[in-house]
Design brief:
It contains 6 helices and no strands. It has 163 residues and is an all-alpha fold.
């Protein structure tokens, strides 16, 4: 992998995972606050459940591209080990094009959807539904970005230590 490409992926991976991790930490704080208020103070505000749901969805989507380039997503890599090198290279190009195409399509479709729900407000937070829904196109765009920079190289596989 070229130096520029690896630096771009490293920086964008770090930024994505840092923001996603921060969102998970905030999500934990919101959930704990809701539990505290529900069981110790007698009633939790309605916005805690909704905010926790939006934060978990947003953090997963923001981390998806970084996890994809690490090979940390769930996939079966058996066929890659059984194919001859030329066919394996063709399979890698196919996987890359499919991922890139689906991620770009997901970006466009979810962006249009997020804009289409702007007239509705969320029940707990009282904000436009477009705001939390924008995590979908941002997450798909980051997946597209990571896949584009990673290229049609073989995806990493997580190997279990059997010793």
């Amino acid at each position: 992998m070229s130096s520029l490409r690896s630096r771009v992926l490293s920086i964008s991976r770090w930024v994505s995972l840092t923001i996603a991790g921060s969102m998970l930490f905030i999500d934990l704080a919101v959930i704990l606050y809701g539990v505290f208020m529900r069981y110790l103070a007698g009633g939790a505000p309605i916005w805690t459940d909704e905010l926790a749901r939006y934060l978990i969805i947003g953090s997963v989507l923001l981390a998806a591209g970084a996890v994809w380039i690490e090979g940390g997503h769930m996939r079966v890599a058996l066929i890659e080990r059984l194919l001859p090198p030329a066919l394996c290279r063709l399979l890698n190009v196919y996987q890359w094009l499919l991922t890139l195409g689906l991620a770009i399509a997901g970006t466009v479709i979810s962006y249009k959807y997020a804009l289409s729900v702007s007239m509705f407000t969320s029940s707990g937070l009282g904000i436009s539904r477009t705001i939390p829904m924008m995590s979908l196109p941002v997450g798909f765009a980051l997946l597209s970005w990571h896949a584009l920079w990673y290229g049609p190289a073989p995806l990493r596989t997580l190997v279990e230590d059997t010793a």
